[in-house]
Sequence to fold (115 residues):
Amino acid sequence: MSDVGSVFEHALRELGLAPLDKQQALRVLTRRHAHAILSGEVEPYDGARLIWDEISHEYEPFDEISAFVGLASQIDDYGKMALSSPDPYLGYIAACTREIQAAAQEYLVGARPAV
Fold:
């Protein structure tokens, strides 16, 4: 942004668009990841992990996206445990995957608008 910030903001103004503040931008990005999870563009775990890695540290209020972080963390743990004892951990991973999809749907329905 330091190199193109003013040019980018000028282009937005010419298009009649207001620049997003940080929280609005994080919501747009979270929505993008939630859509990708539901459309099958990305695996649910991968989408949740992106939300955890890219967004969760600055997103406010955190509770709106905490399910993605918690479920991705659980899958990380279950994956390690499944290496030595696949049963029942592979089933737990499948359940967490379905819960990530449900969280994505819930986020898209209930999240505050980005703008």
User: Anything to note?
Assistant: The CA atoms of residues 52 and 69 lie 5 Å apart. The chain has one domain: 21-110. The two ends are 20 Å apart (CA to CA).
